[in-house]
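Kindly review these tokens for lecture notes.

. . .
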Amino acid sequence: MWFKNLQIYRLPAKWDMSAERLEEQLAKKPFHPCGSQDMESRGWLSPLNNDVLVHAVGDQWLVSLGFEHRLLPSAVVKQEADERAEELAEQQGYKLGRKQMKELREQITQELLPRAFTRRRRMFAWIDPVNGWLVVDAASQSKAEDMLEQLRHTLDSFPLTLLRTELSPMSAMADWLAGGEAPTGFTIDQDCELRSVSEDKAAVRYVRHPLEGDEVKGHLEAGKLPTRLALTFDDRVSFVLTEKLEIKRLDFLDVVRDQIDGEKEDAEALFNAEFALMTGELAHLLPAVVQALGGEIAVAAGDQKPLEAASSQPEAKALADDPPF
């Protein structure tokens, strides 16, 4: 149980929710497979594939949202509709009009849906009710919004806000690269992307390349700003920080993974050990990232943004699909 990408959101510290109450509310919208005429179905799944929807290890919770999609490409419907339209035109002596073609495509969709293949996937979210973190393992904010939307529709109250810091990640990363030094506890690795703020959007990407030379500083002086920067925290966790305060390509290094007994035969015990170790490392990493970005901007209770605000930033290109069931 290791997250690969982090979309980070804020819950109030000491959120007024227990694991038992959360379990009861998630149970109202469990996952069910698509019906014969459904294009998509979504609902809550057990993270461990048992009857428990909120998997708790200590004070840390894990929830899982399941999706099922019917695979019926529009090109398939169009091809079948065009073939039937030709046959009808020969029989009737005239071509079908726009309205008739629309009705024909709808009819074919209804006929083909029950026979279409389905694809299942699942998404995980870590909830830390003590420190107020909600973290979705998703490659983009638009994907994470699927989880947030379902939580909004499921829970009686969901006081989620955006994580906001004094410094923007872009300006902070530019300072680190210009000075050739990462903030305390971090080291700069060898992957980076810089993008021009001008209309041409010129971009330079470094992969496994030293970043401390004059070349990178020259790009900064020319007006390019970092949109991605690879970092390592405390020699334990490596990741890529983006300009949208996303954490991508998260990797727990061997010094962390070696703490788990590889001889564990109980799958649940291994799952729990990995989850506890992961959340323990992230509980140190996230505050350190916030501190490196100048600290968190406090949001007054009356100024809390609604859940929909979590998807207000531009969509990031997905780097990985959510795992199947």
